[in-house]
Specification:
By secondary structure, this protein is an all-alpha fold. The protein is built from eight helices and no strands. The chain has one domain.
Amino acid sequence: MGVLLGIFFSSMGIGFSGALMPGPMLSVTIAESYKKGFWAGPLIVLGHAIPEFILMVLFSLGLNRFADNETAVGIIGIVGGAFLGWLGVKIFLEVRQGITIDLTAKQEVGWGPVVAGVWTSVSNPGWIIWWATIGARYILLSLEHGIIGLAFFFVGHEMADLIWYSLVSFLVSRGRGRISDRVYHVLLYACAVLVLGFAVLFIVNGVMTVLKA
C-alpha cells in the first residue's frame, strides 16, 4: 500500500506542476465559470480526463510488452526524467520572470464544459509529449501493481486538475479577479522543487536500470 500511495501522491504533485501553469484549459475554465458558475471547473476536468484515460489505456497496452525489458524501462525513465527536469527549470524561470494569474483572461469556445475539456487536451501538443515521457514512466511503474496501480496513478494525476480548476471556478464564480502573486509563486516554487527532485530520481533509476540490463 505504501508504494501505491507513493504513486498517488507523487503523480498528484507532478500533476499540479502542469495544472498551475496558465494555458488554454485555464482560459476556458474562466470563461465557462463566468457563464455557468462553479461546476464548470469540475466538468472541464471530467472532459480533460476522458482522452487521458483512453491514452493511458492505449499506452498501457503498448508499454506492457516492455515491462520486463530493463533497457527499455531504463531509457523511458531517463527520457521522462529529462522532460521533468526541463519542466522544473521552466517553472522556476517563469516565476523569476514574475508570472501572474489573471482570472479575467478568458477564452470563449462556444461548447459545453465537458467538450471544452476534451478539446483543450487533444489540441495541446505538450499533452501527448507529457504522456509519452513522464506518463510512460509512471505507467510502467504502475503496471508492476496491475490495474490497481494504474488506478492510483490516474486518480492522483486527475486530482491535481480537479483541485486547482475547482478552486479557479470557485473564485471566478464569486467575482474574484486575481490570486495573490505571492501565494501563486510559492506554489510554483514548491512544484518546481518537487519536479526537479523526481527528475533526478527518474534519471538515476533509469541509468541504474540500464546498467543492470
